[in-house]
Amino acid sequence: MFAIFATFLLCLMSVSRSAPLVCEKLVQPLNQLDPHHLEGRWALVAGSLNNLPSMEALRLRDSITMYISNSSETSNFSYTQINRFGDQCQYLHYKILVKGSTFTFDVGNRFELNGTLLYTSCPDCVVMRWIVKSNKRQSEDLYLLSRRREVEEKELDEFKAQLNCHQLPTPVVKDHTKELCPQLPESRPTAATVQIEEKTEE
Ligand SMILES: *[C@@H]1O[C@H](CO)[C@@H](O)[C@H](O)[C@H]1NC(C)=O
Ligand SMILES: *[C@@H]1O[C@H](CO)[C@@H](O)[C@H](O)[C@H]1NC(C)=O
Ligand SMILES: *[C@@H]1O[C@H](CO)[C@@H](O)[C@H](O)[C@H]1NC(C)=O
Fold first, then answer.
1. What is the residue-level pLDDT of the chain in tens, covering all 202 positions?
2. Cα of 129 to ligand 3 centre, how many Å?
3. How many structural domains is the chain composed of?
């Protein structure tokens, strides 16, 4: 009986001792952004944020694609996010300004967004952390993006542990069977997409 209790205590101790260590690694922002690694198409696999209406908005999108490309400047990128709602695709275009290990979205003064990349052991993923501030919303967001539509369970588990470390809720995990929207050739928003953009933008 004592032996079992002792073992239990030992396990408990090792869990509580290792948790801060695990978190230390999982919350640490990457201290450099590798532009080549970031470029191209990403699918949003899972995301979580501490703002309920925005979490619901994330849930309502059938799929989210992000295209990041070198905008011919050395340290700035162009960013296109494509949200699918049923058979409609919403295109949002932003410029990303990179400053060391953090990046900001240049969206005029509609809202402020500071981002960093976090550790992930998944080889074809990135984990982005956004701090968003606007009139309507102030939130911390974590997103798991991958070149694949669906990641391994252990990779998703690591992301969930990461959310736990940041005290963020259980993520919205995207249904990988829902189609991604196509990339627009030389993307310029059409009048229709701008309208949707203005309706839903914070
Ligand atoms: C981006 O493009 C510019 C000009 O074409 C090039 O000089 C620069 O090295 C590129 N940067 C990356 C990270 O690919
Ligand atoms: C990135 O964009 C900002 C704002 O438009 C500009 O001031 C800066 O010079 C750009 N950086 C580079 C390396 O082109
Ligand atoms: C983003 O970073 C800048 C510079 O560090 C800071 O002044 C600003 O308050 C930050 N904004 C948010 C939303 O965290």
1. 555 555 554 444 444 444 666 899 999 888 877 777 889 999 999 999 999 999 999 999 999 999 998 766 567 888 899 999 999 999 998 888 888 888 888 777 778 899 999 999 999 999 999 999 988 889 999 999 999 999 999 999 999 999 999 999 999 999 999 999 998 755 454 444 443 444 344 4
2. 13
3. 1
pTM over 0.85: no
Residue 11 lies in a domain: no
| Best CA proximity match to 149, nearest among 84, 93, 80, 65 | 65
Is 174 contained in some domain? yes
In a domain? residue 24: no
Chain centroid, CA 5 distance in Å: 42
Tokens of 51: 């703002």
- Asked if 146 and 42 count as a contact pair (C-beta separation under 8 A), the reply is yes
State the closest ligand 2 atom to the C-alpha of 76, by its place in the atom list counted from 1.
1
> Quick check: is 158 in a domain?
yes
The tokens describing 172, both together, are 């919205």
183 C-alpha to ligand 2 centroid (Å): 25
Range of the domain at 147: 35-199
